[in-house]
Specification:
The protein is mostly helical. The chain has one domain. About 85% of the residues lie in helices and about 0% in strands. The chain has two helices and no strands. The protein is rod-shaped. It starts with a helix and ends in a 5-residue tail after the last helix.
């Protein structure tokens, strides 16, 4: 393999690793942002006079989303090739 062909292969590998890392980071940031939005919505609902039952529904949803987000984040990390 010539030096230039080797550099092309290295550049391609670096670009692929960068794309994977960026996709992983974006996914994890999206999950965190969704969780924050739900928690803010719960606080706004409480301030607006939501009933305890309504707040419990939002709290249950946040708990379920936390578990799903953790599972999704672990899947993203597990299925992203090392840089």
């Amino acid at each position: 393999m010539s030096a230039s062909a080797l550099q092309v292969a290295i550049d391609a590998a670096v670009a692929a690793a960068t794309r994977n890392t960026n996709a992983e980071d974006a996914t994890l940031n999206l999950l965190a942002a969704n969780n924050t939005l739900l928690k803010n919505a719960t606080a706004a609902a409480a301030a607006a006079g939501a009933t305890p039952a309504q707040l419990q529904q939002l709290t249950d949803l946040a708990t379920a989303q936390d578990a799903a987000s953790a599972k999704q984040a672990a899947g993203v990390v597990a299925n992203t090739p090392a840089a």
